[in-house]
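Weekly sync, protein design subgroup
Attendees: M.S., D.O., the rotation student, P.L. (late)

Item 1: inverse folding check
M.S. brought a backbone from last month's batch and wanted to see whether the design step gives back something sensible before we order anything. D.O. pointed out we never logged the input encoding, so this time it goes straight into the notes. Structure tokens as presented (202 positions):
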């Protein structure tokens, strides 16, 4: 009796295994494609990949070209430096008790802003270059010492003409320099002031 049960169970297991194999193999490929098409699974996958592709295309469209990025970075500095030139022009006039006219300010800005724009664009583009850092260091040293000399020894007309652009160039050079050369440049200007016996009061 125990053997009959075992044989019956073994036959049932074999029949079940054969039935499962036959159902998996019995469906032809055409029938499988028909089922996939009717369920719409394939359409969902292709629509999601199309959406991802469209998103990637939009991201590529929004990427900024390198030249546009450089122009934006230059404008980011040209605007404050132009206002710095304007501020220095106004301050130097008031320092000598003169009120600047709009024509004087306009003339200074019309001649100064294009020069600032070109200078800022190219120095900002090559700011990380060692030669540019050396050039900005020397510009900072020369403009700093010249500014201090002008404030202490220059006559009022020379100070009014030269101080605004020199101060703007000095500040811009310090901004663009790495920290070490910027501090060294300021130390050089302070050493020059101390050695010549100049004062920084107005």
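Designed sequence read out in the meeting:
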């Amino acid at each position: 009796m125990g053997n009959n049960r075992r044989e019956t169970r073994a036959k049932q297991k074999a029949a079940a295994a054969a039935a499962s194999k036959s159902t998996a193999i019995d469906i032809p490929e055409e029938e499988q494609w028909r089922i996939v098409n009717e369920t719409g699974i394939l359409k969902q996958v292709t629509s999601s990949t199309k959406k991802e592709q469209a998103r990637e295309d939009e991201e590529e469209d929004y990427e900024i070209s390198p030249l546009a990025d450089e122009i934006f970075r230059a404008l980011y500095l040209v605007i404050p430096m132009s206002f710095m030139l304007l501020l220095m022009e106004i301050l130097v006039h008031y320092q000598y008790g003169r009120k600047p006219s709009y024509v004087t300010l306009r003339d200074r800005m019309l001649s100064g802003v294009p020069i600032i724009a070109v200078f800022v664009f190219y120095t900002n583009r090559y700011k990380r270059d060692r030669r540019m850092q050396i050039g900005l260091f020397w510009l900072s040293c020369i403009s700093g010492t010249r500014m201090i000399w002008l404030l202490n020894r220059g006559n009022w007309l020379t100070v009014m003409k030269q101080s605004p652009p020199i101060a703007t160039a000095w500040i811009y050079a310090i901004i663009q320099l790495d920290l070490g050369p910027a501090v060294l440049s300021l130390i050089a200007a302070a050493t020059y002031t101390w050695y010549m016996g100049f004062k920084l009061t107005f």
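Discussion: The chain is about 85% helix and 0% strand. The mean pLDDT is 85.
Action: P.L. to compare against the previous round before Friday.
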